[in-house]
């Protein structure tokens, strides 16, 4: 560890929770250089939906590299890009009756968010953006302004402006109509809320604590956007690419976003790749107006196209995600019943799911115990209070059951220690 501590910036974070040196990874498992294997319930913060080094994707990339395929080409035409465009349109957009053009941004999720916000402001001529409590959209300045997390916002060094924060679904409980509240504020000329260019929202808030909006709430939000002439941007960077059981998290809700941001598992292989899907009439950029050296990762085009061809040619994979999500939820609900029916509860959707604990210290202790016993798992939420599962979607049932057993023992140990401390 001395090399990292000596040479790497103190900004590093995940390694502090998992202080080992990883050497190999396959499927849903990570292996250290000492040979210890861990089940991966983090998966690159949702970047490895198809697992580590999936053989189909790996072979496609190896073949492309061996043939001296284009690695970097700015936004020039390439066969790899052409194949991705046609494959994504054929297997993702057309079957869902979606009519979007694709904009390739810089390679990270925050780059896609920046582009979407910038385009919304350009098209509408307005500055203000509505985002939501507990929302997370990235750490570059524009995306950070739309992010709620105090820890990340505190590092900005400049004022974070032109964003109005609104309460997310059920933020005040299920008896408060947050859409009606927003409508009132947007209708009242003295509310102090400038007419927004767009609303940006996660259908399931990943870093915010696995808060999941209902289909009814999301549909009402879309109607609100149409009423007040605001663009609707769905941030599907973590919840998309199959994580909730459909390719897009909002698919079964009957809405038509104006823009969709994608990244993380879009490449399918952990390669940097981000994209904005936008309605054709919104594509009002002048050539090169939103630029970037790395807005065409050809290796990512190759693995992304291979992933879509392999996993999304029919419903088999999506159905398996739903079944595995239920298996994980059942395991988590058993843990809740055993160790904290009054203090623990399951949150999230599909395979984007976790257990909310009484506080962040409890959740952190559970994750440490789980790591000591072979499971990489992290926390999320306003107080880091949610033990969050983001395992690869290709994980086996046996691996799920083993992970649930490790989590069960972690909750048993931590919750019993707390009970003993309270008794004394």
What this model shows, in words?
It contains 14 helices and 17 strands. With 424 residues, the chain is an alpha/beta fold. The strands form 4 sheets. It has a 7-stranded mixed β-sheet. A 4-stranded mixed β-sheet has the order 1-2-3-15. The chain has a 4-stranded antiparallel β-sheet with strand order 13-14-17-16. A hairpin with a 5-residue loop joins strand 8 (204-205) and strand 9. Helix 4 (55-66) runs antiparallel to helix 11 (298-311) and helix 13 crosses helix 14. It is globular, with a radius of gyration of 22 Å.
Summed up:
The protein is built from 14 helices and 17 strands. It has helices at residues 2-7, 14-17, 43-46, 55-66, 79-93, 109-124, 141-145, 150-153, 178-187, 215-227, 298-311, 316-339, 360-372, 397-423, and strands at residues 22-26, 29-32, 37-40, 100-104, 129-132, 163-166, 198-201, 204-205, 211-212, 231-235, 259-262, 275-279, 345-349, 352-356, 375-376, 378-380, 386-389.
